[in-house]
Amino acid sequence: MPDFSRKASVGESIPTSSMADIAFLLLIFFMVTTVFVRYRITGIVLPKAEKIEELKKRRMIQYLWVSADRKVYINDSYVPEVSQVANIFYDFRVQEPRTIVSLKCDFRAPYGLISRVLEQLREADALRINFAADREG
Predict the structure, then answer these.
(1) How many other β-carbons are positioned within 10 Å of the β-carbon of residue 128?
(2) What separation in angstroms does the CA of 38 have from each of 25, 41, 50, 63, 137?
(3) In this structure, how many other beta carbons lie within 10 angstroms of the beta carbon of residue 113?
(4) The domain 48-135: what is its CATH number?
(5) 101 φ/ψ sector (left φ>0, alpha ψ -120 to 50, else beta)
C-alpha cells in the first residue's frame, strides 16, 4: 500500500506584519477625533451684557463658578464651604501673584452667596476679578 501522507504542511499562522500599521492608524484616528472638555461644570447660565472684553492672557486665570443651586466650584472642583475660598485663592496668589479670577455666576444664583464669595476673594487679596458674561443677542 502506497504512503499518501503529506510531505509539506500548510501554515496556520495569522500574518501580523501590518498589525502595527493598523494600530497606529487607529491611535491617530482616536487622537484626532477626541474632544477634550476643559471644564465639566454644567447648568450655569451666564448673565447677558452689552459690552464684553475678552481676556487675552489665559495662563494666569483661575475659574470660579457659582451655580443656581448654591454650589461653588473652583477650577472644576467642588468647594463644600464658602469659607474655604479665601484659603484656596491665597495659595494661588502665593504661587502666581498676578492671578486673575474669572467669576462665572449663574444669573439665578442668590446675590448673598456671590457677595460672600467676593468677600472671601478680598480676604485672599485676589483683587483682579473678571466677571464673565454672555453677549446680549
Answers:
(1) 15
(2) 26, 9, 26, 11, 25
(3) 16
(4) 3.30.420.270
(5) beta
Which of 62, 71, 65 lies closest to 46 in space, CA to CA?
A: 65
With a cut of 70, say whether residue 38 has pLDDT above it: no
Residue 127 is placed in which grid cell? 483683587
Helices (H), 12-129: 19-33, 85-95, 111-123
Instruction: Measure the CA dihedral 54/67/123/52, to 10°.
Output: 20
Residues 92 and 62 sit within 8 Å (Cβ to Cβ) = yes
pLDDT digits 0-9 by tens, 83-121: 999 999 999 889 988 888 989 888 888 889 999 999 999
- In 3-state terms, what secondary structure has residue 137? coil
The pTM assigned to this predicted structure is 0.61
3-state secondary structure of 48: strand
61-66 and 72-74 strand pairing? antiparallel
Domain borders along the chain are 48-135
